[in-house]
């Protein structure tokens, strides 16, 4: 089922709200990875007693197997959340959702590509790939363009202005 991404009912999420959601996601990942680090530390200790040092051995340039495992856990958070619900916990707080520019349902390949290659290129470009979301008409970062996704508001939040009769301030 095709969906027109340029339809008037979509409101694209801008740079700052996406940045706030990303920071919140990384706070969640930080605390989640504490548990993974504890498990890896325990495994490293046990393997150290057996004189096996596989977790701290470089397997990819200067990155150890432990570093690779932590990266995979981080990427899996974004891939699984986005594939299952179209959003992460950080995006959900701000009512954001990742959608395909062409299809109703996001494809797993598109999400994996967006969250790995796309984000890697955004980081390599010193964040410029992310800043494109503030310059583009559809608020697309480099990773969105590469995977043909958009970040939109899942629902509109209504503002209610109530004037306090004593102070005249809006609440």
From TrEMBL:
- Say where the protein is mainly found: membrane
What does the record say about its membrane topology?
Multi-pass membrane protein
Q: Where in the cell is it found?
A: Cell membrane
Which InterPro entries does the record cross-reference, listed alphabetically?
Pra-immunoreactive (IPR051791), RDD (IPR010432)
TM region(s), chain numbering? 68-86
Domain (RDD) spans: 12-147
Question: Which keywords appear in this protein's UniProt record, sorted alphabetically?
Answer: Cell membrane, Membrane, Transmembrane, Transmembrane helix
Q: Name one Pfam family in it.
A: RDD
Say which domain of life the source belongs to.
Answer: Bacteria
Alphabetical list of PANTHER family matching this protein: LMO1584 PROTEIN, PROLINE-RICH ANTIGEN HOMOLOG-RELATED
* Name of protein: RDD family protein
Query: Which species does the entry assign this protein to?
Result: Dorea hominis
